[in-house]
Design a protein that fits this description.
Blueprint: E1 18-21, H1 22-29, H2 33-41, E2 60-61, H3 63-77, H4 82-93, H5 97-100, E3 104-107, E4 112-115, H6 118-126, E5 132-135, H7 136-147, E6 153-154, H8 172-182
Antiparallel strand pairs: 1-2, 1-6, 3-4, 3-5
Length: about 180
């Protein structure tokens, strides 16, 4: 298996090449599986590689999704309502990975402001707005650090039942389910 080691692949810029399962996303971001599941079902953060479709299918999150999840967690921790977080995430959804890294979100606990330059941050703070900020580039680095020891897998179709051991990035549970379905 040349070049398929998930630790080799680039994490930034190649959105959609490597997928992260829900459990891995939770560990990398620092949220519970219940939160992740709720956010996916309410379309706050839907996995962009593969969403769950019935029992047995695994959601697969991209690196970019994990960064957005981290931002949602930070905003929630700061007391911003889910409704206002949803508005902020809507605006981030249209941005590419490279674009996201240059954004700082500033919030006064109610409204979330998007700043693209240090000057915008200073203007907002001088105007009396903003209590805390999230530099999305910083969230990138945190997620990359967390992922360095967590499993990833190719974002291609699920492994066939006869796939060699280890091909499913060590997910024994998925392999058992596949064997059960096969019969």
């Amino acid at each position: 298996m040349h070049g398929s080691d998930p630790q080799e692949g680039p994490l930034v810029g190649e959105d959609g090449e490597v997928g992260y399962r829900g459990v891995t996303a939770c560990q990398a971001v620092g949220i519970s599986y219940r939160q992740l599941d709720y956010w996916a079902r309410t379309t706050l953060v839907v996995p962009s590689i593969r969403d769950a479709s019935g029992s047995g299918t695994q959601r697969l999150y991209s690196f970019r999704d994990l960064v957005v999840l981290k931002v949602v967690k930070r905003l929630l921790d700061a007391g911003v309502s889910l409704q206002n977080i949803r508005k902020a995430i809507e605006t981030l959804r249209s941005r590419g990975v490279e674009d996201l890294a240059g954004i700082t979100l500033i919030s006064d606990g109610t409204t979330v402001y998007e700043c693209r330059s240090p000057e915008e941050v200073v203007d907002l703070l001088q105007g009396g707005q903003g209590v805390f900020g999230i530099a999305i580039g910083g969230a990138f680095k945190e997620i990359q650090g967390s992922l360095s020891h967590l499993p990833a897998e190719p974002a291609a179709a699920p492994q066939p039942v006869g796939a060699p051991a280890g091909a499913a990035a060590g997910d024994e549970l998925a392999a058992r389910r596949a064997r059960r379905r096969a019969g």
